[in-house]
Amino acid sequence: MEINKVKNKKKREKRVIPGFGISMGVTLALLSLIILIPMASIIISASGLTFNEFIRIVSAKDVVSGYKVSFLCAFIAALINCIFGIILAWVLVKYDFPLKGFIDGLIELPFALPTSVAGIALTSLYSDKGWIGSIFAKAGIKIAYTKIGIIIAMIFIGIPFVVRAIQPVLEKMDKQYEEAAAMLGASEKRTFFKVILPEIFPAMLTGFGLAFARAIGEYGSVVFIAGNIPYETQIAPLLIMTKLEQFKYTDATAIALVMLVSSFAILLFVNMIQVRVNKITNN
Fold first, then answer.
1. What distance in Å separates the CA atoms of residue 14 and residue 2, rounded to the nearest whole number?
2. What is the CATH number of the domain that holds 159?
């Protein structure tokens, strides 16, 4: 009996993918080549600067202005994406309608579409002579070459992160919770905020963090519609490209390091909040 148990245990422990040592080795090798080494090269390049030189570069007036534009617009875009992401995910999960699969596929279009193509399309659409921009221009509202245009571009590239984070949670959510709340006399509004939102909130935070971090570093889809007006619509990634074109590699590296640390800190902070929320929800 004991011999059979040992054999059965070995059979259960057999894996399709090779053992832990090989799998972990391949994982670390890929992470090092694709993520860790490139990120470390930025830090190593910036280490050639003295502390005073680093502070002087990253605190220059135009650079600080670029940080403000990038972070502010990315934050607003991520918040808007959370609102519309919940609505889109809810419609795709809870309702059946014609062309549902097609619309569901369109959500991931920003992932597949080249960012420069998206930037040109958005600029043509929202410029003063574009289909949508001309309507707002008559009312005295300018979209392209303003922060509004930057936010729209960031919403475009960030919405898939929120929808795809929330959608699986809604699909797995038991309808009995909503039915129980309705039977107890809860209104639809109260049911959403007390029953549904707590369940999808951790996923929404994940989508928010990913959309925020992606928008901060976005270049192709934003640079065209931004107009790159100094101290108004000039984004931080554009400043990095400008420094590289001027062969100021150390300056570009210093700015890139700030962006890297900021993105990492944002994701870490969001993950910490998510863990905290999960603990509260489970308890």
1. 19
2. 1.10.3720.10
Is 6 among the domain residues? Answer: no
Pair (116, 34) in one structural domain? no
Token pair recorded at residue 6: 């040992």
Q: Are residues 127 and 171 in the same domain?
A: yes
For 76-106, write each residue's pLDDT tens digit: 999 999 999 999 999 998 888 888 888 888 8
Give the max Cα distance, the chain.
Answer: 85
185 within a domain of the structure (yes/no): yes
Number of domain units in the chain:
2
**Cβ distance 166 to 207 under 8 Å?**
yes
Query: CB under 8 Å to 81, separation ≥6 — which residues?
Result: 155, 158, 159, 161, 162, 207, 208, 211
What gap in Å lies between CA 63 and CA 121, rounded to an integer? 28
Query: What does the DSSP assignment read for 63-111?
Result: HHHHHHHHHHHHHHHHHHHHHHHHHHHHHHHH---TTHHHHHHHTTHHH
Same domain, 102 and 32: no
The reply to whether 237 and 113 lie within a common domain is: yes
Q: What residues in the chain have per-residue pLDDT under 70? A: 1-20, 280-283
Task: Provide the pLDDT for residue 11.
Answer: 52
Domain holding 23, by residue range, is 15-47
Q: Is residue 97 part of a domain?
A: yes
Q: CA separation (Å) from 247 to 48, 122, 235, 252?
A: 16, 31, 19, 9
DSSP string, 141-189: ---TTSHHHHHHHHHHHHHHHHHHHHHHHHHHS-HHHHHHHHHTT--HH
For residue 223, the one-letter residue type is V
* 0.85 surpassed by pTM: no
Domain-embedded: residue 2 = no
